[in-house]
Amino acid sequence: MPFWKKGAEPPSPSDPAVPAGPRPVRGVLACSEYACGRHDAASCAYVDRRGRSCPTAWCPDHQVVMAGRAFCRRHARIFGAVGGGEFQMGQALPDLDNRSPSLADYVGDALEPRVLQFLWSLCRPGTNDQVASEPLRVVHPTGGGSRRWDRTWKIYDHTGVIVQVTVEADESRDPEVDLKVGRNTVGQAVPPWIARRFQGLPALAAGADAEERERFYASLWQAAPAQIVLEVEQSRSAIGYLGR
Question: How far, in Å, CA of 202 to CA of 42, rounded?
Fold first, then answer.
């Protein structure tokens, strides 16, 4: 579990040397990327727990290579997040059409910088407050019902968790994404790039797509800071920290 002590500099992706990328996997298929005309694509290597293979193929420009195999972007996120963790390599991976794991992980990656920055700002000098980031996980409701996939960040100390922020994707509400502070939902929406596909609309140009995604993330995050502050104050008040 990655964590950072208050006062330490946040990890910077530009600090370590950037390793050379993996070698592309080439095939003889048409690329599944919209408007891509290449015919040297390799099939996505993802196989789910029912033995079904992903039907897409991706050229070197649009594939993600992991463990020497080509994946589509969605299944690369699932394989990378759970292939070596909760779901071991030789065990069952989530269903082929289950978008929730990759969606929670993708939106979590996008929101993580602003979540961590805000949580760091609430850690008080002179305390043992720490900030933690949890990887993608699956949640099985104790009372039954659909599984949920989430990414979580928290402030905690020796007494326990002070506040927790979660990006959550419920399999029964695919492709909707929730942002929660504690048990309170502060943001809920379908990502616009997925809504666009459902409507049969072409993808936006790169610049317009990036702007649309940023508006989505900002909207999802908008109500979170006030709720985080409220829950931090309530937690610290309950354990005698208010005014410390």
Answer: 23
Asked if the model's pLDDT at residue 119 lies above 50, the reply is: yes
* Angle (CA) 141 147 152, round 5°: 85
Segments in 57-99 forming alpha helices (H):
73-82
Residue 38 lies in a domain: yes
What is the reported pTM? 0.74
Residues 124, 163: one domain? yes
Residue 68 banded pLDDT, cuts 50, 70, 90:
very high
Residue 241 tokens, joined: 């920290």
Is 12 within a domain? no
Residue range of the domain that includes 206:
99-238
Q: Residues with Cβ < 8 Å from 6, sequence gap 6 or more?
A: 120, 123, 124, 125, 127, 129, 130, 131
